Amino acid sequence: MTFSWKQVKVHARTTLIVVVTLVIAIVLFKNRNNTVSFWFFGLTDPENKINVVHLIISTAAATRLSWWVFSLGWGIWSDMKALRIEQAKERERLATQSREARLSEMERRIGNRVDQHNDPDVETTATETADTDVENTDSPRPK
């Protein structure tokens, strides 16, 4: 069933393309001897007659060119938008890394302070060795 549906779609598209091409060819052929004068922002002389086929072809070419320029601009706009989003993510990532570095530095400093507080100082060690000769009743050490 799906195979026959695909065949119908292909044949319908092909028929549509052929019909549109024939209509365009007939319009161009029937208007090959017709001329027209038109105003184009003051760039054309109204006294000069222009072939309709040339007018149709130049209009089609200008439309195609305009569409290409529009799509190019739209692509650039979307690329700029994606770039701004990517730059914002990168700034956020760098800020997070900076915060992580500051926090790890603070943790290291706090850890050093705790280690210094828990380790006996040099002065305390000297006094404790001198006091060991004297019996200290407040000391929790067994006698």
If you had to describe this structure to a student in words, what would you say it looks like?
It contains three helices and two strands, in the order H-E-E-H-H. Helix content is 74%, strand content 3%. The protein has a two-stranded antiparallel ribbon. The protein is elongated and about 110 Å long. It has one domain (7-117). It has helices spanning 2-30, 52-118, 122-131, and strands at 35-36, 50-51. The longest helix is centred in the middle third of the chain and has 67 residues, at 52-118. The chain has 143 residues and is an all-alpha fold.
Order of helices and strands: HEEHH
Q: What's the alpha carbon Rg, rounded to whole Å? A: 44 Å
Tally of domains: 1
Strand order of the biggest β-sheet = 1-2
Helix fraction? over 70%
What are the low-pLDDT stretches, counting only 5+ consecutive residues below 50? 129-133
Total strand segments: 2
